[in-house]
């Protein structure tokens, strides 16, 4: 198990990006622009010592997550919170599977 700090990173496939772009106009205008920037951000974070976990953001689960939290105008902060929460759940499940205790 790595002791690196964890970073959940919101990740999209083309179809999800396009659907979410209509829901959150603060996203990059074009998928290819987002992908290029995201790849650079991931590489930079890994170079800074983070364990980056790419969290697939799908329209319906993300919209439901927002509804449960009364987020009506989701933007970058909501996407980051979603990715961070999902990464915490994943790491917690990994650690439980290995019999490790964690408060992360």
- The rounded distance between the terminal residues' Cα atoms is 13 Å
Number of domains: 1
> What kind of sheet is the major sheet?
2 strands, parallel
Tally the helices: what do you get? 4
Q: Number of DSSP strands? A: 2
Mean pLDDT: 90
Please state the overall shape, judged from the principal axes of the Cα atoms: globular
Oligomer: single chain
Helix content: 55-70%
Write down the secondary-structure element order. Answer: EHHEHH
Low-confidence parts, pLDDT < 50 over ≥5 residues?
Answer: none
User: What is the CA-based Rg, rounded?
Assistant: 15 Å
Biggest β-sheet: strands ordered side by side in the sheet: 1-2
User: Beta-strand percentage?
Assistant: 5-15%
What does this structure look like?
It is a single chain. By secondary structure, this protein is mainly α. The chain has one domain. The protein contains 4 helices and 2 strands. Strands 1-2 form a two-stranded parallel sheet. The longest helix is centred in the last third of the chain and has 22 residues. It is globular.
In terms of topology, how is this protein built?
Layout: E1 6-11, H1 14-23, H2 31-47, E2 51-56, H3 59-68, H4 76-97
Parallel strand pairs: 1-2
Short account of what is shown:
The protein is mainly alpha-helical. The protein is built from 4 helices and 2 strands.
Pick out its properties.
single chain, 104 residues, mainly alpha
């Amino acid at each position: 198990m790595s002791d690196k700090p964890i970073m959940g990173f919101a990740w999209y496939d083309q179809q999800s990006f396009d659907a979410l772009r209509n829901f959150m106009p603060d996203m990059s205008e074009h998928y290819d622009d987002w992908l290029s920037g995201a790849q650079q951000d991931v590489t930079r974070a890994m170079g800074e010592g983070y364990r980056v976990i790419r969290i697939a953001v799908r329209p319906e689960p993300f919209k439901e997550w927002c509804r449960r939290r009364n987020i009506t105008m989701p933007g970058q902060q909501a996407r980051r919170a979603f990715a961070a929460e999902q990464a915490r759940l994943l790491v917690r499940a990994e650690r439980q599977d290995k019999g490790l205790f964690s408060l992360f």
